[in-house]
Specification:
Helix content: 10-25%
Distance between the termini: 7 Å
Structural class: alpha+beta
CATH topology: Protein Transport Mog1p, Chain A
CATH architecture: 3-Layer(aba) Sandwich
Strand order of the largest sheet: 1-2-3-8-7-6-5-4
Shape: globular
Number of strands: 8
Order of helices and strands: EHEEHEEEEEH
CATH superfamily: PknH-like extracellular domain
Radius of gyration: 16 Å
Amino acid sequence: MSELKTLTFREGEVPQAYEGAIPVLDRKSKTSRSTFPPVSDPACEQVLDITNAEGASSVVDQIFNWKDNVLPGGSTLAAYKGAEAQATFNRLDEGLTACRTFTGTSYAGKYRSKLAVESSPRVGDKAVRYRLESPMDDGRVRHDDHVVVQVGSAIALFTATEIDKQAAFPPDLIAKQVKRLQNAQRQ
């Protein structure tokens, strides 16, 4: 498969984001492990670890600074060896079946989240969408939209965040990114 970084969006390809505000970051999944303790439910921790691309052999993150939202969105492209992408996606399905609520600690302090599996987009080999709702200390609610798509030996992850309203990563960008991954793996 081509270098993951070459498959990310370039300036001018994301009209929903500010020009010059879609940085790409190469990361090593082994050094990206959280220093926070695991969340209260092991099934939920499994979902969060997979959504963070832990265990992938190569990972690239892209941040989207949206024109209509002060909170950025993000995508992650993660490459896996052999059939590991499929096995990872199967573990994600297992975790999503069991995870409903959990508590944890983040940079902002302790939090509580509720997870709900939503209707999945029809892209890639397999896809799933789930939402997290997390009440904040000031009475507002943080909404995180997560879309995870397996494409051959890769997994693409998309995240959007809003406060007090449902978040959604742009479906046209998901479809375009998945198509790039499919084309790269056919070469």
